[in-house]
């Protein structure tokens, strides 16, 4: 691990300082090495038009039980007064195949990308209270681990690796 708690950002460098993710890309340097305000840190890894696709690793909670998921980023908008987050709108397609039928469910997602944790979080699009959360690795912007999360408890109940 990084030596930091959840919702903390590792500054890196010799001192290994941890700061709150809300202090990353906020316009004020909090890390001794300025890593929290560096261009590479504060550049969103998602842009409108980006697409990811992948298969489930496990799924213990969705009704659809998709064999494939595809996420398309529709818009990324800066939040005027809170720069550590950008607003994101996405379309998520769930591909379902059974012996009886094939279907594609199309869900719109409204959420946020948080620079400090490199996490994309969407509100539950349906009344089943299942939200979508995706985490980008700090070393690779070309894939993410996407989780279906029970909004009430935060429990991860399905995982998809998207490329």
Task: Give structural notes.
With 163 residues, the chain is an all-beta fold. 0% of the residues lie in helices and 50% in strands. The chain has no helices and 10 strands. An 8-stranded antiparallel barrel has the order 3-4-5-6-7-8-9-10. A two-stranded antiparallel sheet has the order 1-2. A hairpin with a 6-residue loop joins strand 4 (68-78) and strand 5. It starts with 7 loop residues before the first strand and ends with a strand. 22% of the residues are buried. The model has no long low-confidence stretch (mean pLDDT 92).
Please render the helix and strand layout as text.
Blueprint: E1 8-10, E2 18-20, E3 51-59, E4 68-78, E5 85-97, E6 102-114, E7 119-122, E8 130-137, E9 140-150, E10 156-162
Antiparallel strand pairs: 1-2, 3-4, 3-10, 4-5, 5-6, 6-7, 7-8, 8-9, 9-10
Give a quick summary of the entry.
With 163 residues, this protein is mostly beta strands.
Keywords for this structure?
two-stranded antiparallel ribbon; single chain; 8-stranded antiparallel β-barrel; mainly beta; 10 strands; 163 residues; 50% strand
**Portion in strands:** over 45%
Which sequence of SSEs, written as H and E, runs from N to C? EEEEEEEEEE
Poorly predicted tracts of residues: none
- Spatially, the strands of the biggest sheet line up as 3-4-5-6-7-8-9-10
The main pleated sheet reads as: 8 strands, antiparallel, barrel
Structural class: mainly beta
Work out the helicity level: under 10%
> Would you tell me the overall average pLDDT?
92
Instruction: Compute the number of helices.
Output: 0
Total number of β-strand segments?
10
